[in-house]
TrEMBL record, chain A:
Its main location: membrane. This is ATP-binding cassette domain-containing protein. Residues 357-603 form the ABC transporter domain. It comes from the Bacteria. One of its GO terms (cellular component) is plasma membrane. The chain crosses the membrane at residues 20-44, 51-72, 92-114, 177-196, 228-246, 258-281, 301-322. InterPro entries: AAA+_ATPase, ABC_AA/LPS_Transport, ABC_transp_permease, ABC_transporter-like_ATP-bd, LivM-like, P-loop_NTPase. SUPFAM superfamilies: P-loop containing nucleoside triphosphate hydrolases (SSF52540). Keywords: ATP-binding, Cell membrane, Membrane, Nucleotide-binding, Transmembrane, Transmembrane helix, Transport. It comes from Actinomadura physcomitrii. It is a multi-pass membrane protein. Pfam families: ABC_tran (PF00005), BPD_transp_2 (PF02653). One of its GO terms (molecular function) is branched-chain amino acid transmembrane transporter activity. It is found in: Cell membrane.
From TrEMBL, chain B:
It is a multi-pass membrane protein. InterPro entries: ABC_transp_permease (IPR001851), BCAA_transport_permease (IPR052157). The chain crosses the membrane at residues 12-35, 55-73, 93-111, 137-154, 183-203, 223-245, 257-276. Keywords: Amino-acid transport, Cell membrane, Membrane, Transmembrane, Transmembrane helix, Transport. This is Branched-chain amino acid ABC transporter permease. It comes from Actinomadura physcomitrii. It is found in: Cell membrane. Its main location: membrane. GO terms for molecular function: transmembrane transporter activity. Belongs to the binding-protein-dependent transport system permease family. LivHM subfamily. GO terms for cellular component: plasma membrane. GO terms for biological process: amino acid transport. It comes from the Bacteria. The lineage of its organism: Bacteria, Bacillati, Actinomycetota, Actinomycetes, Streptosporangiales.
Amino acid sequence: MSSSLPHLVPKRALLALSARWAAVGPVLALLGAAVLAAGPWLGLGLDAQRQIILVAVLALAVGGLNLSFGYAGELALGQVLMYATGAYVVGYLSTIGVTNVLVTLPAAGLAGLLVGVVSGAAGLRLGGWVLALFSLLLLDLIPRIVNLLHGRLGGVAGLSGISRPTLGGLPFDNPTFYTTAIIVAALWFAAMRNLVHSRQGTAFLVLKESSVLAKALGISTYRTKLRAYALGAVPAGLGGALYAYLDGYIAPSVFTFELGLVILAAAILGGARSVYGAVIGAALLQLGPRQLSLFDQYAEVAYGIVLVLGGVFLSTGAAGLGHRVFDRLLGRARGEEGIAPSRQESVDVPPLPGEPLVVDSVTVRFGGFTALEDVSLRAEPGTVTAIIGPNGSGKTTLLNVVSGLLKPRAGEVRVGGSPVSGSTGRAVRHGVARTFQTPLVPASLNVREVVASGRLGSGNVTLVETVLRLPRYRRVRRADLAAARRALAAVGLSRAAGLRADALPLGTRRLMEFARALAADPAVLLLDEVASGLDDTELAELTVLIRAVREAGATVVLVEHNFELVREIADHVIVLAEGHVISTGVPERVARDEDVVRRYLGRRSAEGGDALTGKGTP
Amino acid sequence: MTVLWAGLTMGSVYTLVALTYNMTLVLTGVLNFATAQFFTVGAFTAYAGLTQHSLPLPVVLLIGAVLGGLVAVAEERVAIRPLRGHGGHTELVTTLGVSTVIAGAAIVIWGPDPLRVTVVPERTWTVLGGQVRPNELLLIVIAVVATLGFHVWTHRSRLGLAGLARTEDEDAAALRGIDVRRLSMLGFAIAGIFGGLVGPVMAQTTYAVATIGLVLALKGFVAMALGGVGSHLGALLGGTVVGLVEAFSNRHLGNDYGDIAVIVILALILLLRPTGLLSKGEPRLV
């Protein structure tokens, strides 16, 4: 129909633009930085240069906060400490005659990193608000240490006469210093952009959303948090160094809680979960209110209001606002493209060499409550083992033990003969992958990224390889995306790949979790009530899918309430009641077991239909 | 001995802040960064009431309690309730914002300089060979009594037990008929009223000054983390340790060392015993 064309055309253009944004955005940003860096030769005045340097300095500190807070979810207010460290490092180096920019700036960045690692190691033990307050407390160290080392650092009066950096013995003039500051900021944001748009960035977001999920995917939570926090300290150190060079003078009175507030407010305004938002937020604050002397008196009230309103309403800041407008125009957030899984006759699952899973006399207690008592089972490759039982009988606890989330009080879990109990890392390395009863889905990722995140536990790619996009990074990334594509096709969700994960309905989320587990090429696949919330058609497809995974060779373990499904696909059934195994065998045998019928199946049929035939009375 | 009394006095201040943190943590599940500012509200109420308008003390205490309660309830309504179910640590940002607004407002109204507040007559007594003022002794007594009171109340009263249940599992508590929203509002109200009531006495030691809120927020946090999050007796222990370490380090090592010593102790506790001294369980409150 011609009437729909006018609004279709811009929509299609937008879609094309959106698809290319990932490639075009960084190029535009680099072009912008290049034009900015050439400012002095395009007639930019000294005062304007100074203001832009201050924006760059603030943006560097904000960028670091975005990495640890916006992406990894750890709010640290100690950016000022790293900033001050960078400033005092170049200040001190200048007093002993070291001014070579290729020495001083890396030294400032490394010093920031060091402070980040040391302070993060303590504060991240508990994370959350403990880290936030601990890092804030550390700001108090700045005047203390500066005062104690006043001979070297100038004490309360400040350190003056910091000479401009040099290169090859030549001191920087104003335009050169200005350009250097822009280049340093551009380099950091390029590195940060490559870092967050990578499996590492996905790991940060997964961790922010759910530490349980992160662990189940084989991500070391403590190390990942520390990495984000410590890396975020580097740009703060660089920013501090540039600041020290700008005026040639620093004093403890600059590095205060108020500066921390400005950094946080800029992060919130620009959008903490964004790369370029840091620049926007820094520019808004630096070129706006910080120029007005009248503002001084009301500064704290204003920053406070920004934090309250920003926290409540603007959860994604200016950058997120842009994304939302874009999504709205495309109808993408609401998933208009149709997200129902597509029908398919056969499922294509690559070979999954399974490993035998052995649960050996496992006992789990929570306080005085025994959740599992002396539970053993053996699941073979190429078979489906179903765990059934009433609510609270310990089914999910058993899956948690197998996937390493819970450490058993006694007993052991072995995959392919290797013990894995008590360590999600070991379980993942031995090929254990799982889904959750309540799907754990990071809202901020799209479906393709969620599914690819199933592979985060494997494929070691270093930070340097990630930031520089070296061949190994690209190889692993290609493999991740290929596996995600295959897994999405297998569950029939190929067309949903580009949608936001939280736009999917519950049943579809379960399938997405299935795909995530599948993408990991699991040797042992654990499915926790994957069938609940699915309609008849979806259930039929799920049955085909689970069979295909079994044919591919994997060891499948299924926690399930739907006995009809169990009867149809399980080779072996284990019945749990109150933490004990009360029956095992083929489905038909278990269904005839009087004890099982009395304690589980019979009661279910009394409650709502005949569980044995699965024909419920509505 | 004078150093000991000084340490115990500041220790009591930190204990009181830590107790108030615990109160909102247990009943609401939120670390309220603005907790210490409830005492600031009481302190400036005392300055305005006693010094500026010469009102009788009971009236000032009443006004302080009402104002503290109102500020706290308003904070819960504006900065906490809209975030329910969002997850993450957004309440850290919003309560930090509230704290900043309160400090900023105090600067706008009363200026940045410390203001003297006299709640009980200024005297100096010699007790156990050390010099101590009546208001300092009063503060120590209040801290001990409040600790015991909160402890008994949390473990005996229906409300306190409901709070403990909520801490264990919010959804389960809601299913058992515990009104989580009402609990949250009550947690803030109690903290606010307590701060408004005790703030005037505290201000005679700390003065009424806008910047004190930040210092108290941090040292009170150290006291709570040392003693064990959620434990009232731990708050007393932690507060006392922080106060004494600070006082003795400042006296014997030099003025800059008090704060450094406190930070070092906290870092050690976080690394070696992250649950704090008196907490048995897992650090699951976060």
